Structure formats: C-alpha cells, structure tokens
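Input/output pair, single chain:
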Amino acid sequence: MSAVAGIALPFVLIGLLVARQNIVVILGVATFAAYYFWGDGELMNVVYDMWDASNREVLLSVPLYILAGALMSQGSIAKRLIDLMRALMRPVPGGLSVAALLACAVFAAISGSSIVTLLAVGSIMYPALIAAGYQRTFAIGMLCAGGTLGIIIPPSIPLILYGIMTQASIADLFIAGIGPGLTMLGVFVLYSMTVNWTRDRGSWWSARELWSSFVNSIGALLTPVVILGGIYSGYFTPTESAAVAVLTAILVEVFVHKHGFAHLVRGNFGGFNASMADMGRLIWRTVGETSTMMGSLFPILALALSLNVFLTYEQVPNQIVEWLTGYIDSKVMFLLLVNLFLLLVGCFLDAGSAILILSPLLPPMAQQYGIDLVHFGIMMTVNLEVGYLTPPMGLNLIVAMAAFKEDFVTIVKGVWPFLILMVLVLWLVAFYPPLSLFLIR
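Output:
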C-alpha cells in the first residue's frame, strides 16, 4: 500500500499545484499522507507535532515584523526616506531611479517584506518617475526589482522562516544577508545609472535641502539602526527586535513625525486633525489586518514544521543523500542542479512557502556536500528572490499589476533586464561563499 501511495502522492501534489490550490491544502495532504502511509498511522501525531514544533518563541518575530512593516508603510516613514534619497542623488545620472532603489534598500531594512517595500516606495516613486520622463517599462521593472531587496537585506521574514526550519542562527543569517543584499543593490544602481546616463541629472546638491530632508527623516533613519544595531550588538534577540520594531514604528510615527498617520486618519475618520484616539483606532485596525494575514500563514507554518519533524525522525534527508551521492559526486554539480531546481520552484511558489516545503530536505543534503548551512540559506533565499520576478506566479509581478494599473506583459518587459542581473548575482552568491560569510567567519 505504501509503495502505491509513494507513486501516487507526487502526482496528486503536482495536480493540486497546477489547480492552484492553497498551499495549506497541498502541505496538509503531504503531511497526513506521510504520517498515515509511512508512519505509525496515528494521525493525531500530526496535531501533537504541529503543537510541539510551533511552540517556539522565535515564531513571534514573523507577525511582529509584518505588523511593523504595515505601520511604517501606512505612515510617513517611506515618504521621508524617499525625500532624503532624492536630495542625496540629485546630481547623479538617473538620480531619481537611484533614489528609489536606495529607498527600497533602507525600507527593506525596516519592513523585512518584499511586497511592503514595493508598495510603500512604488506608490510614491512610480508617478514621480513617469512625470520625470522615465520609460514606463523601466520604472516598473526597477521598482519590482527594488522591492525584492526586502527578502534578502536584513531583517528578512524568509530568512527567519529558514532559521526556524533548520535551527540555523537567525542573527548569523541576517548578517550574512548584508553582502549579497548590498551587491544586488549596487548592480541595480549601476545599471540604472548606465541606461539613464543623460536623463534626470539635476542641479548640484543644495545644503538647505539636504539638511531639511535629513532632519525630517532622522526618525525613519534611526529605525533600522535600532533594529539591526540591537541584534548585532547582542542587546536583544531577533525575536525581541521584532517587538522593538513595532514599538519604534509607533513611537516614530506618532511622537516624532507627529502627523505620520494624519492623511490616513483624515481619510478614515473624516476629521482634519489627527487626534491620538483616531491614531489609536487606525493602529488597532492595522493590527487586525495583520492578524488576519497571519491567520492564513500559521497553519502552513505548523504543517510544514510537523512534516519536518516526521522527515527528520524517519531519516528521509539522509536516505535521499545516500541515493544522490550515487549520481552526484561533486559539490559543483550539486550546486548547479539545486540552483536550477530552486529557480524553477520560484516560478510557482513564493519564498515563504518554498522555504517551508524544501527546508527539511535541501539543507541537510547541502551539509553532506560540505556547504555551510548559513551560506545555503542565503543562496536559497536569493534564488527565491529571483522567483518574485518570474512568470507565471511572480508575486511582485502580480502586486505591480494592481499597484501600477499596468498589464502583465508590460510588467514582464520591464523586469527582464533586472532578472538577468539578479541571476548573475545569484551565481556569484552560490559559488563565492565569502560574499555571504565574510562578516561571520
């Protein structure tokens, strides 16, 4: 019976994926089938393992970072950061596009989310880029690519999920993401300057504008310093840093910027003065929306952790490694195949779902070939970062359609040059581990 199930199960899962079933359905089928056909048949063990695997403090960081990003994107932090970057990049060729990319990088270091970064920066910068004469396809492609920086520049929600699934140090993963993240940003900036060399080169820097924009954005700039500085200095853990991020977002928006939520308060409550009570209700609404989002994520996470427990107990990764070593006898060949596989997976699954599904299998295999667990996590995340821009299921492509009111073909035309650049950086990350590990080794 188990042999028949083993043959049928992959086809069932592929059928569910093609039918675009929710990932919780796919993971649920896989988990319950594994326990029933290859375990002891006691399906209640799935529930027990889900509870044991989910009873971890570090899981609290995921909803808290999402909440922090939502609070910052609805307030004025993104706009103030953009104003500062525009002032700094005024005389640079393609200065507005470079400012947008830098704003994406800084906001990514606050929100940890690709979608939040794309929406927060893109909603402001896309009309400005079009008004400044940039090509529509370039502007869309650049903002979609800049948004992906949110899942590699720390703090990163996919890196947190990878750390949870593999027991790798989340602090080390955050530090290791700095090199690849800045490399990706540098490549995007150089390309944007090259293709816009004669465009949008403004006047020389204005000391008054620089000082004014710096003073206005100092609260926003302190946010990533507090979050990342606290982690790397050891003052608080990555989980505690997520709570600090939420508190910092509220304090900066309400007390430093004072009217950070004012435009939303006026739109939601009809008043012209943003009272503290109105701001409190808006914050509470944001908490509710974040809770709804997490309600769909945590069942997926719990099922993935339960399946991870089962596969580890049954030594499935070790068995796969023993089988693979009969066909793949080199680290280079393994890296080539696993990168091609992850690029394909990224076309159909978002980074979080792919990490939850594949982390029980791929990292143990990588360790057998002498690949550092942290380096593999960064490589895996960059692979799936590319997937945010690949049809047919690229998440940033879908979000951009709604945000910029453009058709899918136009968006794909805009992202393909950046897609090529991302793949080049991916191969550098994969085959040059010091790019990821030089700060922690």
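Residues 58-296 form one domain. Residues 227 and 336 are 35 Å apart (CA to CA).
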